[in-house]
Amino acid sequence: MFHPLSVYVGLRYVRARSHTFFVSFITWASLVGVCVGVAALIVILSVMNGFEGELRDRLLSLSAQVRVTAAATAPAGAPGVAAWQHAARTVQDAAGVEGVAPYAELQALAVRRPEMLPVLLRGIDPRAAAGVNELAQAITQGHLADLTPGSGRIIVGELIAERLGLARGDSLTVLVPTVDAGGAPAPKLREFTVAGTFEVGLPDHDATLVFAHLADVRALAAQGAASEGLRVRVHDVLAAPAVAARLRALLPRSFEVSDWTQDNANYFRAIRIEKTMMSLILLLIVAVAAFNIVAMLVMVVTDKRTDIAIVRTLGASPRRVMGIFITQGLVIGWLGVALGVALGLALALHVDTIVPFLQRTFRFQILDAEVYYNTAIPAEVHWRNIVTIAVAALLLTALATVYPAIRAARTAPAEALRYE
C-alpha cells in the first residue's frame, strides 16, 4: 500500500497549492483541531496528576503508608507485647521499609464547654514517629518533643483549636466512651494540656486528629478499647502495595497488613473516574478534527478524480491509490499530533509560570485562598499518559483516512475520463 510512488504523490498533494480555499481551510482546521485536542488532553491530565500527587502527599503526611494491626480473627487471640516487638523487628528488616513506629488510637470526644467535638486520639512515640510521618514539619505551635510520658500534653489540629477556642497552654477534657463489666456506660475522662497545634491542609486531619504520647493513650484506654499497631514508612510510596504484600508473607496470621491505597481507596477511585471521563470528553476534540480530515480527503478525492484515473490507466493498482490518500491524511493528522504533544508539554511543564502570569494580567484568582488550602496549580507530567494520548490520537487520525482512500481506490478510470 505504501509504495514509494504513493508516498511521493501523497506528499505532493499535501504541499500542493491548487486546492480550493474551502479544502485548504478544512485542512488547516483539521490540523489545528488535532493539535488543540492533544495539547488540552496533556495539560488537563498533567494538572489532574498534580492535584492527585498533592492530595496523596497531604493524606500521607500523617497517615501510615503501610499499617500492621492485630487480626480481627487471630487464631491465638490478640498478639502480646513480645509478639509486637518481634513483628516490629521483622518489619524493620524487610526490603523497602524505611521506618517503623508503634501507635495506639482511641475514638473520643474533645470537651471544652460549651463545645464538644468527636476526635481521634492517637498515641505516638515522638522519637519513632519522626521517621514515619511528617508531624514535626506540620507543627505550627510547640514541638513534638513536648509529648513526654505522663505529661498529659497533646497537640491538636488547627481546625480543632479554632472551633474550641484553644491556645497553647489551655486545658482540654478528653472523654473516652467505654462500658464496664456489666455492659453499662462508664466513660473515662482525662484532662490534657494543649502543647501545640499542627496543620497539613486537609480537613480529615486538621479537624479530627489529636496527638498524645503513646503511654498516656494506653493508660487512658480501657482493656481492648484502643486500636494498636505499627505504622510503616517505605522508600517508595508507590511501591507500598508490594511492600505490604511482602510483609503479609513474613508476619504470622495474627497480624493484618494494609497500605495507603486501601485506606484511601475512595479518594483515588474518584480521581481515576474523573480523569477517565475528562480524557474521553477531551478526546472528542480529536475525533471532531478526525471527521474534518475525512471531509477534506473526500473533497480532495472528488477534485482529483481525473488524476486518479490517469494514474490507474498508467498501471497503478487500487492499493497504491489508497496509499496516496492515506499518506496525505496521515501527514496532516500526525503533524497535528506532533504539534499538540509539543504544545501540551510546553504548557504542562510551565504551568507554575503561566498561571500566575494570567492571574496578574487578567486580575483574577483561579483558586481563592479563602476557600482552598492550596492556591497554586500543580502539574505532574507522566510520560505513560503522553504516549497513550499520542497513540490514541494517531489511531483516530489513521482511521479517518480509510474511507476516503477506499473511495479513491474504487474510482473507475473510464467514468472519470468520459467527459475529459
Which features does this protein show?
alpha+beta; 17 helices
Written overview of the protein:
By secondary structure, the protein is of the alpha+beta class. The radius of gyration is 32 Å and the shape is elongated. It has 2 domains: about 5-60 and about 270-415, no CATH class; about 65-265, no CATH class. The protein is about 55% helix and about 20% strand. It has 17 helices and 10 strands. It has a 6-stranded mixed barrel. The mean pLDDT is about 80. The chain has helices at about 5-15, 20-60, 80-95, 125-130, 135-140, 160-165, 205, 215-220, 240-250, 260-265, 265-305, 305-315, 320-350, 350-360, 385-400, 400-410, 415, and strands spanning about 65-70, 95-110, 115-125, 140, 155, 170-175, 190-200, 210-215, 225-235, 255-260.
Short note summarizing the structure:
This protein folds into two domains: 4-58 and 268-417, no CATH class; 65-263, no CATH class. Helix content is 55%, strand content 18%. It is built from 17 helices and ten strands.
Can you lay out the helices and strands and say which pair or pack?
Blueprint: H1 4-15, H2 21-62, E1 66-70, H3 81-93, E2 97-112, E3 115-124, H4 126-129, H5 135-138, E4 139-141, E5 153-157, H6 158-164, E6 171-176, E7 188-198, H7 203-206, E8 209-213, H8 214-220, E9 227-234, H9 240-250, E10 255-259, H10 260-263, H11 265-303, H12 305-313, H13 318-349, H14 351-362, H15 383-400, H16 402-409, H17 413-417
Parallel strand pairs: 3-8, 5-7
Antiparallel strand pairs: 1-9, 1-10, 2-3, 2-6, 2-9, 4-7, 5-8, 6-7
